[in-house]
Amino acid sequence: MKILEFAKKEKMVTNNFPVVPYEVTDGFRGKPEYSYEKCLGCGACAVACPSNALSVTKDEERGLSVWKIDYNRCIFCGRCDEVCPPESISLSKESVMCVLFNKEDLTVTGETKLRRCDSCNRYYSTERLYNYVYCKLASAGWGKDVIEQKAKHLRSCPECRREQAINNYVNQMTKRG
User: Fold this and answer.
1) Could you write out the DSSP letters of every residue in the chain?
2) Is the pTM of this model over 0.90?
């Protein structure tokens, strides 16, 4: 009887959840929301995801970088939100993840165009990431000649850059004698 008297004095501690949405506090880590327009395709989110819910793969046949999040695996840790440079991922207040019949409905996919290397013509990065870095270089206040020199470096894949660096070093050493 003491428990019933105590419960009668206190206010209601449950809520009418399916009818009335549950209100969460500030700082709640809910479902990661993906903003395709801002995504660079850098893959930082996929590297940081501890549950491998995020993946970034290259589809070289179509020339696209494919970004995919599987909410079946997501643990709502917020690492993807923390590491995303253009803030294209943000944590929402939504926490209820349920579907009726098809669990594939809990998968979101995005695609970005890949960029080819000027030297070897292989895909190495996304167009958006190249444009993002180029704009950052342009806003650094350097002259056009320096920006173009660095942009030429950006338009090459890592393998070709390495090859160019080795060739430059060898040329410098042969000039010295």
Assistant:
1) -HHHHHHHHSPP----TTTSPPP--TT---PEEE-TTT-----HHHHH-TT--EEEEEETTTTEEEEEEETTT-----HHHHH-TT--EEE-S------SS-GGGGEEEEEEEEEE-TTT--EEEEHHHHHHHHHHHHTTT--HHHHHHHHHHHTS-HHHHHHHHHHHHHHHHHHH-
2) no
